[in-house]
Design a protein that fits this description.
- With about 270 residues, this protein is of the alpha+beta class.
- It has two domains: about 15-115, no CATH class; about 115-270, Rossmann fold.
- Helix content is about 30%, strand content about 25%.
- It has seven helices and 13 strands.
- The chain has helices spanning about 40-45, 70-85, 95-110, 140-155, 215-220, 230-245, 260-270; strands spanning about 15, 20-25, 30-35, 65, 115-120, 125, 130-135, 155-160, 165-170, 175, 190-205, 210, 250-255.
- Strands 5, 6, 7, 8, 9, 10, 11, 12 and 13 form a nine-stranded mixed sheet that branches.
- The longest helix is centred in the first third of the chain and has 18 residues, at about 70-85.
């Protein structure tokens, strides 16, 4: 049985003939029509809603349409169970609403490569109009390192997305896009910021940074990218990753959890301090 909390609706958020939620949102700049069961899913995406000044003005035509069904929820439950087993974690039974939010994330991420966008598992921050993305396996300290930058540099630093932003090509340039899926601390905002550098976080007892060789970069970042099952979408994902590997500086950041780690990494990857 589906149990979802009811909420009030705004223009841009409707109900279909089956009393399901329908809303328009812009994910990584791409207009997307979403149909789902839980108001909490719409609420999760509210900052990304596409709205008009009035119903008469209308909304842009969607480039992506996603309808989250019970089958998608069950697929997410099975996927979550496989991940828990592979990582040796205790099973956690999430609510239908939570699984629907995850299923929407997967559905959007599966389709965005058609528009030269990919999901990148990282903590992305903005510094002086430039995006820096810190990536690593879960639990290594991506968010911790972003937090150190924020602690040391204060208002110079703002969060783009602390967990799952999108990276894409617009007008021939690479950008990091905010997304509603921001991790447990919900740090991020709707934005588009030019990608300046990527840092691979390595927990260490001293702070130092090395530039990764081009041959190392592709496989390193591919491990943190969402990989669609569709062959064509995977081909396009690979093309975007090659572009990143060829044009974006990628550094291996060996770091402690001390504030000095932020100073050392910023000096090495941005060179502006």
């Amino acid at each position: 049985m589906i149990v979802c909390r009811r909420q009030s609706r705004s223009y841009g958020e409707q109900m279909d003939e089956n009393n399901r939620q329908v809303f328009m949102a812009r994910f990584a700049g791409v207009p997307t029509r979403v149909t789902c069961s839980c108001p909490s899913t719409a609420e999760h995406c509210r900052d990304y809603f596409i709205t008009s000044v009035s119903p008469a003005a209308g909304l842009p035509a969607p480039r992506i349409s996603v309808d989250i069904t019970g089958g998608d929820i069950e697929e997410m439950r099975r996927l979550n169970l496989r991940v828990e087993e592979a990582e040796g974690r205790t099973h956690v039974e999430f609510s239908y609403g939570h699984m629907e939010i995850l299923a929407l994330h997967k559905a959007v991420s599966d389709r965005l490569p058609a528009f030269d966008r990919v999901l990148f598992h990282c903590s992305a921050i903005e510094v002086g109009g430039r995006a820096v993305a810190f990536t690593a396996p879960s639990g290594t300290g991506k968010s911790t390192h972003s937090r150190l930058w924020k602690q040391v540099y204060g208002d110079e630093v703002s969060y783009i997305n602390d967990d799952k932003p999108f990276i894409g090509i617009d007008g021939g340039e690479l950008y990091v896009f905010g997304s509603p899926w921001m991790g447990k601390h919900s740090l991020g905002r709707p934005c588009r910021v030019p990608l300046a550098a990527i840092g691979l976080i390595v927990r260490d007892e001293t702070n130092y940074v090395t530039r990764m060789a081009p041959g190392e970069v592709f496989l390193t970042i591919m491990r943190q990218i969402h990989r669609p099952a569709d062959i064509e979408m995977m081909r396009r994902t690979t093309q975007i990753m090659k572009r990143i590997a060829e044009t974006v500086p990628v550094h291996e950041i060996h770091c402690t959890m001390d504030p000095e780690a932020a100073q050392v990494s910023r000096a090495a990857i941005l060179g502006d301090v």
